[in-house]
Amino acid sequence: MRVKPRLAPDHGVTLDEISHDLHRRFDATVAAREAALPAARRSIRASANAIRAVHRDESDRASELIGEARAALRAGYDAVTDHPQLRFAGYLQDAQKEYAEANVTRALVSGDPVPGPDELEVEDAPYLNGIAEAIGEGRRHILDLLRAGQVERGQAMLDALEDLYGVLVTIDYPDAITLNLRRSTDVARSLIEKTRGDLAIAAMQQGIERALSEHAGRLQGDRGSDG
Hints:
The chain is mainly alpha-helical. Helix content is 80%, strand content 0%.
């Protein structure tokens, strides 16, 4: 005759009790995930809109949207406080990266100091990836400046981007820890090289235009003196 094994006989725990506890814990985890996911999406959306507002020179709107992104990110953190397996599942890290990118982009365009990860309350790896993404936004701003003929301001922005890149290249750690920062750094380097070339061409064109304008002014002055 087979004897049916008992579970945890010392504590008298039944299978029904174990099943109930498992369901309770999984229900709590699912509820936390269902709260954190939309919060992360809200933060990402607000961060993306903030970056657009920065490029449109809508500083008040950008600040408002960054505030919304921060609030949504905090809501996501709060939802997974008791669920560390969700805290580091990835979607909150994506939201942190976008939030860091928005803040760094705003600082670059406005000329303010770049905020650090502690100030933004984000993890190190998402923060660094946000910096790498912000370099692309910095290039976009430089191209806008060049179209407006503001080569010197474009050069100042490039200097700031190169400073950020200088931080990225010092982070030589496994991709599993840095969230594939190496790839993002490579992309940032290529964008900086392209931007440097664009600035060199723009500066050369500006110099030629200035020389032609000065030459035309001298010719006009010579004609006036002859008259």
